[in-house]
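[Automated response] Your request has been received and processed.

Submitted sequence:
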Amino acid sequence: MKIKLALLALLVTAISFTGCDKLKDKADITFDANYTTDLNVTVTPGRDVNGTFNESATIDLASNPDVQEYLNVIQSWEIIGLTGEANNVSTDFNLISANLSVTSSDRSASWSFSNLPVTNGTTLTLDNSDGQWDTINQMLADRQEITVSFTGQTDVDDVSFTLTVTIQTRVTANPL
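Generated structure:
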């Protein structure tokens, strides 16, 4: 009889632990969190025909209200989209060379562009060809502020535009 009770207690304990894990998995919350920043680029007239620029902005992950609510219980981040779009272009121009980077205190991802015609609505391809999204996923998992920077050279020296960078993420959190 004692053996039956011990086995029953062991069985109930095993079921309880398994059930708790299943319950905890069911408590996962998945939501999309998007971050958008505008880099207002102004290339001022100078002595040379070509102009240069260097703009940056910082993104605080907690600026998204859903992320702020679950920041301490986030289990994973996944980039689902990353875009850069030129708007408010004062005059059409060519990017002779440019570099867009996303950095944290100890990680960096970047994309390079050259000889790219820019008009209103020009989209920069920000793909994962060199593992950039993977690196940004790690930055997000570190829960640190990230900085978006855009530097380069144009074929004109008197132009302004806004580069809107949007980072689309899918977040999984578990409050249990």
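Summary generated for your ticket: The domain at 28-173 is CATH 2.60.120 (Jelly Rolls). Strands lie at 29-43, 51-59, 74-87, 93-103, 108-118, 123-125, 146-154, 159-173.
If you did not submit this request, please reply to this message.
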